[in-house]
Amino acid sequence: MLQEKRIVVKWGGACMRNLSSVKKACEITLSDQRRSIVVVSAPGKDDEYDKMTNVLIHLHRDDHPEKSRSEMLNEIEARFAQLATGTKFNAKREVEKLGRDLADGSSFDFIVSRGEYLMAKIMSEHLGFTFVDASTFVRFDAEGRLNLQETLERAALLCKLPNAIIPGFYGQAFDGSVKLMTRGGTDLTKTLVAAGVKAEKCENWKDVTGVKMADPRIVKNPRTIKVLSTKEMRELSYMGFEVLHEEAVLPLRGKNIPIEVRNMWLPEEKGTLVVDDAYLPEHRNGAVIGIAGKKDFSIIRLEKRLMNQELGFLHRATGVFATHAVNIEHVPGGIDTVSFLVRSENLKGKFPALLKDLEQTCEPDEVCIGHNIALISVVGSGMTNTPGILARASGALAWCGINIRIVDQGSSELSIIIGIDNDDYEAAIRALYAEFTDSWMKRLFKKAWWFVKKSLRPARKRRPFSFHLYKTNWPPHSSGRPV
Ligand code: ASP
Is the predicted pLDDT of residue 199 greater than 90, yes or no? Predict the structure, then answer.
């Protein structure tokens, strides 16, 4: 009988990395009949082997720093043979074919996609599920973009099968060849399938429990986020949280098909539920659900008297950044100033030309640049219409003696972005996490403790943050320097 309620399961590379994790994945899949469609990644990195996708990339380019092509092929064969232990999968034959395809000049995309393809073949043997090649339904258009409509229509046909195992990360290009998605694309394959078959939910299995509220390398044992909306996820991913592939939620837009991020080694734990914004439960604990951040931003500040009256100033300035391919991340502003926050690495080698162009195009009175800025995003759609979140965040930082350089909150009230010195980054994350998770008693105790510490010990010496003045044009073009 065909399954009505289906769960689309994705096994990530970390879950496919060795025989014991593969066996565990099969055990979990088979423990619930609804888990009838499985999407797999290529084997991930483990103690013995590198990530399979990376090995295949080296194989095609023949650019491995230590291994020749034949050594790489031997390693691939040994790994797949190990993962297929106890099945009829013939690793030798499959990898010999891969070698022949390579010699025959197969495309980069085809060779790299074989990591997922062969892993799905192996899982099909272990699970007894029908192998369905992703090329049969994931379609790209002539411009190389995903053809969502056609893909969903084709994916819907999977409902006719009692079960299916599908390789992630690739589909079929307009000319019939294999085309890869961007890295981590198996997440997208999973949601395409789920939307096509109108699944009850997706399960995204990893080797960690859900999505944490803060970076575990900075905060000890941070809480797991229980429910996360796709917009909140985007805010956290922007700051470097690895949740899902950026495009993965697109096929599920407007649909009530949640994605559950779960830990294969602790399957009894609930993990994190990623839901479409429209289906976010009204009552969640706390307005703030995550605190993420990144270091190494630079800020370029333009000052021009009566800027607010000059039509198109911002348009001209942003145009200059676009011409030099410097991506602007945020634009905090004042009345006669506007600042452009960019990633410092993005400016490398481009600043002198950018500066010259800004001078010519915008004729600013002053241009300054400051480096070593870290941005922290306090995220949560529950902040909307909740007074006091910014006050609490800035208060928590003030208690730790952390100076705020920039604050940026969009009118959607989904996140507050706070700019501080790189050196304060870790302390700020810890302070904000404590502010939004500790009980008021604990917070009071921490503040008292910090106060005692501050009274006993002189404040640590701070490196003063300085803006480097590149150009000044006082007296300015129009009305002279204000006195
Ligand atoms: N194996 C591919 C990668 O390493 C795709 C994936 O895992 O989703 O990016």
Answer: yes
